[in-house]
Specification:
The structure is a single chain. This protein is of the alpha/beta class and 385 residues long. It folds into two domains: 209 residues, Vaccinia Virus protein VP39 (Rossmann fold); 122 residues, no CATH class. The strands form four sheets. Strands 1, 2, 3, 4, 5, 8, 9 and 11 form an eight-stranded mixed sheet that branches. It has a two-stranded antiparallel ribbon with strand order 6-7. Strand 2, helix 1 and strand 3 form a beta-alpha-beta unit. Helix 2 packs parallel to helix 3. The radius of gyration is 22 Å and the shape is elongated.
């Protein structure tokens, strides 16, 4: 029999992409947003997706009922992190911070053999309410679940250590029910680090589309724009030019690989509409580095002014201009997230929607590596193939 699981806060099912191929079935999922549920159902038609708010009793009880009917073996839960993430507002009072308590209550009710909990590292320093007191999430987890589960040895991992071309630091907590002999721990780290050059270095240069000037003026800046666009379209419909404003493009054209535009001479520093200088951190308006894994893909991946979103670029011959003054394309982001090029993206899906859900996802190859380890452990714990 295959391992059967429940996916909570399932997004569009990015984490699950490779699980079926290794003999793991997500038979039940829950997601609150209707457009994400629609996407999920198109990709995984066999999965029973419950659309609704886990905080509502009818949805919570339906998840429990169907989980027990399906005799699920594990829960994969990835509560929203926007209230904790360094890329967000870091609002300690964000109500989404407490969504993990509903996941924990479900775990206590269902008591699956295994649990996979993923979130940003700030989860370990975030407070939730417990018996009218505020306590840190790690303590809350132990108070609620240590009676039933053994916890994995490591809580913080970097996806880059597991074959992912992205420095994505995450808290991953693995739980194994106490009646089982062998405990689920993270797999061994990979020996090779996958850099941006390894992941997307073979892709040809692509110019952005400057949308706040005339197209003729745009072509004067990028005379090879249409030729590059034709090549990009032949690779993937999702390898399309990001759209940016003139002042940001000019600034990034004079920014070397691995550097921030804030380090440029004044003429090419980041500017506002009125020409005044932008104030910000030097990890914004920043190009990434070819010789390192990519920076964490976030929901703000379409924005030059967010954290390290800009393509590394290459110095053009005989000048101080650098190519690709743009954020990554969706296709490039998919590669950094280890999403396969043949992923069945629904035809109705927009670029903005796709950028958002990918930014909130988990690299599916990372999940695959962890679940390959689980299959080994589960076999030792008595499951027959």
């Amino acid at each position: 029999m295959k391992l059967q699981g429940l996916s909570l806060f399932s997004n569009v099912g990015i984490a699950e992409i490779f699980l079926e191929k290794i003999g793991v079935d997500i038979v039940l999922a829950n997601e609150i947003l209707k457009n994400r549920v629609k996407f999920y159902k198109e990709i995984y038609p066999k999965t029973d997706v419950i659309c609704g708010d886990i905080r509502k009793n009818n949805v919570f009880n339906e998840i429990i009922k169907k989980s027990k009917t399906n005799k699920i073996d594990f829960i994969l839960t990835t509560p929203p992190c926007q209230g904790m993430s360094t890329a967000g507002k870091k609002d300690k009072n964000d109500p989404r911070n407490n969504l993990i308590t509903y996941a924990i209550n479900l775990i206590k009710k269902i008591k699956p053999k295994y649990v996979f909990i993923e979130n940003v590292p700030q989860q370990l320093k975030t407070f939730v309410k417990y018996q009218n007191k505020k306590i840190l999430i790690p303590k809350y987890l132990k108070l609620c679940l240590q009676k039933y589960y053994n916890f994995s040895d490591n809580e913080i991992i970097n996806a880059a250590d597991y074959g992912i071309p992205q420095n994505r630091i995450r808290s991953i907590i693995l739980l194994t029910r106490k009646d089982l002999k062998y405990k689920w721990n993270p797999p061994n780290k990979k020996n090779e680090i996958i850099t941006l050059k390894n992941a997307i270095g073979d892709l040809p240069s692509l110019d952005p589309l400057i949308y706040d000037i005339s197209y003729n003026e745009h072509l004067k800046i990028f005379p090879n724009y249409e030729k590059k666009l034709t090549v990009a379209n032949s690779i993937s419909k999702w390898h399309s030019p990001p759209k940016h404003v003139y002042r940001q493009v000019i600034s990034m054209m004079h920014t070397p690989s691995g550097k921030s535009a804030f380090d440029n001479v004044k003429k090419y520093k980041p500017k506002k509409n009125d020409g005044s200088l932008v104030k910000g951190f030097r990890n914004t308006y920043k190009r990434q580095n070819w010789d390192k894994p990519g920076y964490t893909v976030t929901t703000y991946n379409r924005t030059i002014g967010s954290q390290e979103n800009v393509h590394p670029g290459r110095k053009t011959n005989g000048s101080d201009i650098y190519s690709d003054p743009r954020v990554f394309t969706v296709y490039e982001i998919m590669k950094l997230m280890t999403i396969p090029a043949n992923w069945k993206i629904p035809k109705w899906c927009s670029e903005n929607f796709l950028r958002t859900v990918i930014g909130e996802g988990i690299p599916p190859l990372l999940v695959k590596n962890f679940f390959i380890e689980l299959l080994k452990i589960d076999k030792l714990n008595g499951r027959k193939n």
